Predict the 3D structure of the following.
Amino acid sequence: MHYYAKLNENNICVEVLTRARELPKDLDGFIKINDYNETLLWRKYDSQTGWSQERFEPSIEAELQEKIRELEQKTTKIEELEGTIMELTTIIAQLQGGN
């Protein structure tokens, strides 16, 4: 098994992942770690000094803002998919001789 710390834009670990296959070495935002170690959560990674001792846990408001952003992205994707479905439905109807 391969273990990774997922870093946010500030190099803070936001998730610890386990993968059966190794991720590409040049994949941004992931640091390979020795084992599944949740104590790295909310700690900052520096390629020169390693992991900080200080934890940078997000505030509840920051977490809510992130969830809202994720929902907005999903809503946009759903709207795009609905539009594609409508277009395909129209094409199918035309191909079947409908109006």
Q: What stands out?
A: Residues 2-55 form one domain. Residues 33 and 98 are 58 Å apart (CA to CA). The chain has a mean pLDDT of 92.
